[in-house]
Structure formats: structure tokens, C-alpha cells
Amino acid sequence: MSTAPPPASCSCCGDALADERRIDIRFGLPDAALGTPEEARRTAGADALLKVDGVGSFVRCLLPLKLSGDTELVLGTWLEVDEETLRRTASVWHDEAAYPGLVVRGRLANAVEPWGGEVLGLEMTARIADPGELPYLVEGHEPTAVGLLGDVWGRDHVLERFPTPLPVAVRTDLGDGWSVERSAGLSARFADGADQFAGPDRSVAVALFQDDRAGRAAEDFLAALLDGAPEVPESRRHTEHLPGGGVRHAFWCTPEDTGRGRHELTAYAVEPDGSAAGLYCSHAEPEAHTWAGHVWRSLRRHEAAPASAG
């Protein structure tokens, strides 16, 4: 007898996550409604039907995007419609007989990254695929909209733009050819000059450096980066030489070393041309040291991936 595979689990807390093959992310408001006072926003009989005074009328729809790795991203986005369409949609929204035949045409009201303004305002049509779900955007009325729905997009290139925790690990572009794996279950932001990922019991910060001394060996630049670092036993530091003349180094500290409540790993990877990345991991449980090491080893310099997977 076959058994179903276990559900995906959060790398932070171990809780089950959604199916890795379908990722659902929701936009809270249409872009044009961001910053409007709450009293200007009124629902038309359902939370998914919105009228914003002085802005327009909107219907929440699902935008399905095909990603590489047999993954589907389903975005809870908004479609801007005229007032008559909003009234017609509201009239059948709770009608079990009429709702499956609902067709809504309008313009995409969210600038979905990584496309941004290129997709904002695209004319699209939504239909009911499942009576228990919101309308799906299934038809585009201009070439960009057709491609958005029909092409297969690079999974990491699309998902890395979303700051919310995801059920899958995502390779994140750091700039200058560097990338690192953002673990499943971690939120993302850029602050204080570093990419930062965080969850309930662990966090990561990654920053880039460039040697200001031309021609300095990677080992010497690493030594400069480590200047002032705390002394730790040899058993808690590790250096590796990389193909092509690069080098990477990590050391880790326990709460007993620092007086702080978490375990910490500090690491660097340095390329021969003076480009370097520094990484800091913090985690509550000692068992997560393996996770921190994995994040460090995922740090690498690479060629930029194409936006579309074909």
C-alpha cells in the first residue's frame, strides 16, 4: 500500500506548510487604493468586491503563474472593473446557481513583481474554475498578458521578490553575481545594507563587500574582513579554498561565548577579484547549526538566471 508523502515543513518551527507545488500569496489591496483612508473603502456584499471612493471598483481574482520546477504560484490579486461590472458580480456572488457562470473582464490592479509596472493595467478576463474559489484570471487580451499566463517563469526569479514566508527554499539574488538560499518559512527584507531573512527562532543577514586594494589575494582580503573577530577554538572555525582561487571561512559562537541568547555563525566567501559576501546566522537551538552551515555553503557567485524558464 502506498502512502502520501509528508507535508512540507517550515525550516523554522517545523509546522506543516502548504503544498510546495502550489504557493498562494495575497495582495491586501489594489495598488491604487494603498494609502487611502479606510472609510473610503467599502465592500459590495463580500470582502472580495471593493469600491474605493475616488479610485474605482475592484474584484479580487486569482492569478495563476506557471513556475519552473513544476510549481504554480497563485496570486490573490485585484482586477479593476467598471461600476456596472461590480454590481453584476455582486448580484451573483452568493448565488450557487449563477456564480459558476460568472465572467469578469477588467484590468490588473497590482504591479506584480518582478514585472512591476509592465503588468499593471493589463486587460484580462476571469472565469470560475471552482465554485468554491475566487474567479481565475484565465485570458489575456494583449501580448504581455497572454505571455504572463502562458509562459513558464523561473521559480527563484519570481519568488525571491515576495517578502512573505514561502513553503519552499528560494535562491535569492544579492547583486554582483552573488546569491544565497533563503530557507522555507523565512520572511525577507533589505535593511541596513543587507538582505535579511527571519523566522521565529532563526535569522540570516547577508552583505556584499568589495576590496579597495586591487590585486590583493583572496586570503589576505579574508584576513582583513576577519580583523577584530572574536577568538574561538579551532574546532569552531573552518576554512575552505575554492576552485579558481577563492576562499571561504566560517566561525561559530555559543551563548556561553557571547552572553547572548542565541547560537551564531559568521562566515565569508571571497573571490579572487576582490568581491566578497559576508553572512551572519543566528538560531535558538544548537541543532540548527547544521541549517546555518547549509545556508553558508549555499552562498555563491553565479551567472544571472534568465527571467523566463521557456
**End-to-end C-alpha gap:** 38 Å
Counting helices, strands and paired strands, the structural category is mainly beta
* Count of DSSP-assigned helices: 6
Number of strands: 19
Number of domains: 2
The H/E string reads EEEEEHEEEHEHEEEEEHEEHEEHE
Strand content: 35-45%
Radius of gyration over alpha carbons? 24 Å
Summarize the main sheet.
9 strands, mixed
Shape, please? elongated
Q: Assembly state here?
A: single chain
Mean pLDDT across the residues is 90
DSSP helix fraction: 10-25%
Unreliable stretches: 1-18
Keywords, separated by commas or semicolons:
single chain, 310 residues, mainly beta, Protein Transport Mog1p, Chain A, nine-stranded mixed β-sheet, seven-stranded antiparallel β-sheet, 6 helices, 19 strands, 15% helix, 37% strand
What would you say this structure looks like, in words?
With 310 residues, this protein is mainly β. It folds into two domains: 22-155, no CATH class; 168-301, 3-Layer(aba) Sandwich (Protein Transport Mog1p, Chain A). It is 15% helix and 37% strand. The chain has helices at 83-92, 143-150, 155-159, 218-225, 255-258, 289-298, and strands at 22-26, 41-43, 49-52, 56-67, 71-81, 103-108, 123-127, 136-140, 152-153, 170-175, 178-182, 187-191, 194-198, 202-210, 237-241, 247-253, 263-270, 275-283, 300-301. Strands 1, 2, 3, 4, 5, 6, 7, 8 and 9 form a nine-stranded mixed beta sheet that branches. Strands 12-13-14-18-17-16-15 form a seven-stranded antiparallel beta sheet, sandwiched between helices. Strands 10-11-19 form a three-stranded antiparallel beta sheet. It is elongated and about 70 Å long. It starts with 21 loop residues before the first strand and ends in a 9-residue tail after the last strand. The relative contact order is 0.12.
